[in-house]
Specification:
The protein has 2 domains: 11-127 and 254-306, D-Maltodextrin-Binding Protein, domain 2 (3-Layer(aba) Sandwich); 129-250 and 323-334, D-Maltodextrin-Binding Protein, domain 2. 51% of the residues are buried. Strands 1, 2, 3, 4, 5, 6, 7, 8, 9, 10 and 11 form an 11-stranded mixed beta sheet that branches. The protein is 38% helix and 17% strand. The radius of gyration is 19 Å and the shape is globular. It is built from 12 helices and 11 strands. The chain is an alpha/beta fold. Helix 1 (36-50) links the parallel strand 2 (29-32) and strand 3.
Length: 336
């Protein structure tokens, strides 16, 4: 097994972020792990419709979410960020448990179901992405691709499989979900069989999809949006929605938005959160090339999109709770 450019959680400046002398002190600072291509569209609409211009710090593909989470933790005594837009939910839950996110219930999100918001209003979910198997259509047919995640551990699939580094991004949450839903023994056995079968690691989901498109691997573990973008580029990639287990269906992971505890621009932060949690942003993301699935049933009906099956069967807090041990075991098994 080899790890392709396994970069650590390094963050990069974007959208002219400046936090020192000369900055507009009234501009809210947003730490954002959503893909920059789509997030830029959202922030442009935020400014156009509300007049609020945010300063945004993105992270790298390889260090998805984890780098920004560590930054928020390191800055707890003097927070630089006002708002955290995460492309996943599990690290957000852990930040909330540390008291690093402020309670705030956006008035624009009254139609968001309880399962997609924090019980104490420390974060709000929107724009779901499904965890899927992407496959090269010139190498495999849809009928041949496994329909359960557990089946990927078979040697005939593991040798053809690439996955993102499990220490970062949605792959991190996916591995933690395996531990939460399957139990540690079964999840550890799955990871060991992947390693023994020859699974390869990439520095992100989009890199894994690119490898599949190039024929360097037959299939990959990834997110729906990475496959949709690949198809937009004309790449020979399709997807299936594997089940996490009996009665569980697809694992769907929401974006989340929250206010950072002790932020310096609280009023502006609330404006940003109100906008990001709104139906307008869900509609924008659903119509973008990322095709995020709305959490709002009414919007699903309006857009003619299928809703997530099995989303309510996964206890998000339970997944977040086992994440530290799950990722440590994954690191020991897959990255040694």
């Amino acid at each position: 097994m080899r790890c392709i450019s396994c970069a650590c959680g390094v963050v990069v400046f974007a959208l002219s972020l400046c936090l020192g002398v000369g900055c507009d002190r009234d501009r809210p600072v947003v730490y954002c792990s959503a893909d920059e291509e789509f997030a830029r569209q959202v922030f442009a609409e935020l400014e156009r419709t509300t007049g609020v211009k945010a300063e945004v710090l993105f992270d790298t593909e390889a260090g998805k979410t984890t780098g920004l989470v560590r930054k928020i933790e390191a800055e707890r005594d003097r927070p630089r960020a006002d708002v955290f837009w995460s492309s996943e939910v599990f690290n957000t839950i852990r930040l909330a448990e540390q008291g690093l996110l402020e309670p705030y219930r956006p008035g624009t999100a009254d139609d968001v179901e309880a399962r997609f918001r924090s019980p104490d209003d420390r974060w709000t979910g929107f724009g779901l992405r499904g965890r899927v198997i992407g496959f090269n259509t010139s190498k495999l047919s849809r009928e041949q691709v496994p329909k359960r995640w557990i089946d990927l551990a078979d040697a005939k699939w593991a040798s053809k499989l690439v996955m993102a580094n499990p220490q970062f991004g949605t792959t991190r949450g996916h591995v933690a979900a395996m531990f939460a839903l399957w139990g540690e023994a079964k999840a550890v056995d799955f990871l060991k069989r992947l390693r023994e079968g020859g699974v390869r690691l990439a520095d992100g989901n989009s890199t894994a999809v690119r490898m599949v498109a190039k024929g360097e691997a037959a299939l990959c573990m990834t997110d729906t949006d990475d496959v949709w973008v690949a198809q937009k580029r004309g790449w020979p990639v399709e997807l299936v929605y594997p089940s996490m287990g009996e009665g569980l269906g697809t694992l769907w992971i929401p974006n989340t938005v929250a206010i950072v505890t002790g932020c310096r621009r609280a009023a502006a932060a609330r404006q940003v959160v109100d906008y990001l949690a709104s139906v307008e942003v869900e509609r924008l993301l659903a119509r973008s090339d990322s095709r995020n699935v709305p959490v709002r049933p009414g919007l699903l009906k309006e857009l003619g999109m299928d809703g997530p099956t099995g989303a309510g069967s996964v206890d998000l807090a339970a997944v977040a709770k086992v994440m530290p041990i799950a990722i440590e075991r994954a690191r020991e098994i897959l990255l040694r």
